[in-house]
Amino acid sequence: MNKHELAQLIAKDAEVSQVQAAAMIDAFTANVQKALKKGNDITLVGFGTFKVVKRKARVGVNPQTKAKLKIPARKAVKFVVGKTLKEAV
């Protein structure tokens, strides 16, 4: 499912226009990004939690050349599935 299809479903369920539904999706994603950038977790009870985790530096291998390369430490976004969503799937 892509953003357009999701906006159609939200528009139908929330009885709003598709443009308003797309704006809601944009606002949600923008605010999740802002919160994660500040280092905050976002928990939607029953759905899941978005959080920033630190990945350690490591050595990787290029599968084509077999050359070793250093992968630097970085931050990554992790989504932990909530109980209700896990049971629904």
Structure overview:
The chain has 89 residues and is α+β, with helices and mostly antiparallel strands. The protein folds into 2 domains: 1-40; 41-89, HU Protein, Chain A (Irregular), CATH 4.10.520. 43% of the residues lie in helices and 30% in strands. It has 3 helices and 5 strands. The strands form 2 sheets. A 3-stranded antiparallel sheet has the order 1-2-5. Helix 1 packs across helix 2 (18-37). The mean pLDDT is 96.
Kindly list the characteristics that best describe this protein.
HU Protein, Chain A; alpha+beta; 2 domains; single chain; 3 helices; two-stranded antiparallel ribbon; 89 residues; 3-stranded antiparallel beta sheet
Please summarize what this structure is.
This protein has 89 residues and is of the alpha+beta class.
Per DSSP, the total helix count is 3
Describe the sheet with the most strands.
Answer: 3 strands, antiparallel
How are strands sequenced across the largest beta sheet? 1-2-5
Which blocks of ≥5 consecutive residues have pLDDT under 50?
none
CATH class of the largest domain: Few Secondary Structures
Radius of gyration: 18 Å
- CATH 2nd-level architecture of the largest domain: Irregular
CATH topology annotation of the largest domain: HU Protein, Chain A
Number of strands: 5
Distance between the termini: 16 Å
How much strand?
A: 25-35%
Helix content: 40-55%
How are the elements arranged and paired?
Elements: H1 3-14, H2 18-37, E1 42-44, E2 48-55, E3 58-61, E4 68-71, E5 74-81, H3 83-88
Antiparallel strand pairs: 1-2, 2-5, 3-4
Helix pairs in contact: 1-2
